[in-house]
Structure formats: structure tokens, C-alpha cells
Design brief:
about 280 residues, about 80% helix, 2 domains, mainly alpha
């Protein structure tokens, strides 16, 4: 049975499948009340604006993949790599958008987080897998380590998870480097080079999308704060117009404007002009 599975899936994919199976068994073993609370968590997630963002990142990623298909870079052999990138790199980067939008080096921070996380480690290590027992241990251990900071938010746990990921990534890269040294010609072919390059291409292509999301969120926050005491649709539209014509796509300037924005009530066009036009970029 195991030989038949390994003919279709590698050990890492089998380990992921076993972990998912154990997860569903664990959920089913919970009491009725616990299962109800667990399902409520997903209900809350999927009834918020997050679902709109998740759908938009999927659509955007599919558009990038379509463009790669047109230029004959992407084909169905890269489907698994694309899905893994979306789950383990695209979504986690997106979930940190609130931190990223306050960064002074937006694109650099995205690339840094991606490279430090899953992109090079996961996709390059897919070319070389450990035996099933080691893969299972790695998957269970890393899952628990990375889930803990979400279950119990704590900076110490976050730092611990980050350090574990870095150490694990360093070990895997050494292991991969050794295998490449032993058999370099098995790696240098068009298919493996595409699989290696794909996560980097998708991440770089994601930067404009994330920048747009961060910019839009910041505009919404500032608009909500400034329009709180405005009466009438015309005044509110005027506020939107003045904000956009002043800052356009300048995220850093918008961040600085937000930090300097006072809590003074804004009720007229003159006050809008004073706040926005009087602000020096």
C-alpha cells in the first residue's frame, strides 16, 4: 500500500495528507459544544471582509498564472507548486498586511518575509524529501510551533516560532545543497528550474496587489476618521477627491499624514482644505 502511494505522492505530500486526516479526526472527536464553537470561528472569518480579500488574492494569483501560461512558462505540472505557494506563502504574507503597510520598505519587507519563510525552503526542498517518519515529525512539529502564536498570541512564542523556522530552513538548505553537490545534473533541467523560480515570480508579482490593499485600507481608515462629522454626500465625496489628489499612490506620505492627523472635528470644506492642502509632503 505504501509503495503504491509513493508511486503517486512523495513522502512530504503523504505526511501532509496524514496530518490533515488526523486534524479532521480530532475535530470529530470533540464534544458537540466544542465542535460548534470551532465551526463558529470559521463562520466569523467567512462573514467578514477577509473573505473578499482572500477571493481577490486568489483571482489576482490566477491572473498572474494566466499571464505565465500565455508566455508558456506555466503548465499543469506547476499546479501543486502554485497551490502550496498560495497556502504557505501568499496567504501568510497577506495576513501580515497590517504590519506591512506601516513598513518604510514595503516591497523589501515582503520579499524578506517570503524568503525567510516558505518560498525557498518549501519549494526547493520538494525536490528532496526525507523518509515518511521524519516527514511526519517535521510536519507535526512545525504545525504546532506555528499554530501556538495564533492560539495564544505572545511575542515570546512568535519569536520562538520564527527562530525554529529559521533553524529548520538553514538545516534544509544545507541538506539540499549537499544533494545538489552530489547530483547537480538532476537539478539543472527546465522543469526544476521553473518550479524553483515560480514562488519568487509569484511573490514579486504579488507586491503591487498587496501595496494596493495596504493603500486602500489606509485611505479607508483616514476617510472614516475625517468624515465622522461631515454631513452630506457632496462633502464626503469632496473629502475623497482631495485625499486622492493630494496623496495618490504615495503610501509613505499617507502614513505620515495619518500620524499627524489631529482629532479636531471636520465639518466643512474649508476645514478639509486646511487639513489636506496645508499638509506638506
Amino acid at each position: 500500500m505504501q509503495n503504491q502511494l509513493t508511486d503517486i505522492f512523495n513522502n512530504r505530500e503523504i505526511a501532509i495528507g496524514i496530518c490533515i486526516l488526523f486534524f479532521f479526526i480530532w475535530v470529530l472527536s470533540l464534544s458537540r459544544e466544542s465542535r460548534r464553537n470551532f465551526l463558529k470561528l470559521f463562520t466569523v472569518i467567512f462573514t467578514t471582509n477577509l473573505i473578499d480579500y482572500f477571493l481577490s488574492i486568489i483571482v489576482y494569483s490566477m491572473s498572474v498564472i494566466l499571464a505565465l501560461t500565455i508566455i508558456k512558462f506555466w503548465d499543469l505540472s506547476l499546479l501543486k507548486d502554485s497551490l502550496f505557494w498560495l497556502i504557505f506563502a501568499g496567504f501568510p504574507i497577506f495576513m501580515k498586511i497590517s504590519e506591512l503597510k506601516n513598513s518604510n520598505h514595503f516591497a523589501k519587507e515582503i520579499l524578506k518575509r517570503s524568503l525567510k519563510g516558505i518560498i525557498i525552503v518549501e519549494f526547493l526542498s520538494n525536490f528532496y524529501t526525507f523518509n515518511l517518519a521524519i516527514e511526519l515529525f517535521i510536519m507535526i512539529f512545525l504545525t504546532l510551533v506555528n499554530i501556538l502564536p495564533f492560539v495564544k498570541p505572545d511575542k515570546i512564542l512568535e519569536k520562538f516560532a520564527s527562530n525554529v523556522n529559521l533553524i529548520f530552513g538553514f538545516i534544509v538548505i544545507i541538506y539540499i545543497g549537499y544533494n545538489l553537490y552530489q547530483n547537480i545534473f538532476s537539478f539543472i533541467n527546465i522543469d526544476t528550474l521553473k518550479a524553483f523560480a515560480l514562488p519568487l515570480i509569484l511573490t514579486i508579482a504579488l507586491i503591487p496587489f498587496l501595496y494596493s490593499v495596504a493603500l486602500l485600507d489606509l485611505y479607508k481608515i483616514i476617510y472614516k476618521r475625517m468624515s465622522k462629522n461631515l454631513n452630506g454626500r457632496k462633502l464626503k465625496w469632496y473629502l475623497k477627491y482631495k485625499l486622492f489628489t493630494k496623496f495618490r499612490l504615495k503610501l509613505k506620505s499617507l502614513q505620515f499624514f495619518q500620524s499627524k492627523l489631529s482629532f479636531e472635528k471636520i465639518t466643512s470644506k474649508i476645514q478639509i482644505n486646511n487639513h489636506i492642502e496645508g499638509f506638506k509632503l
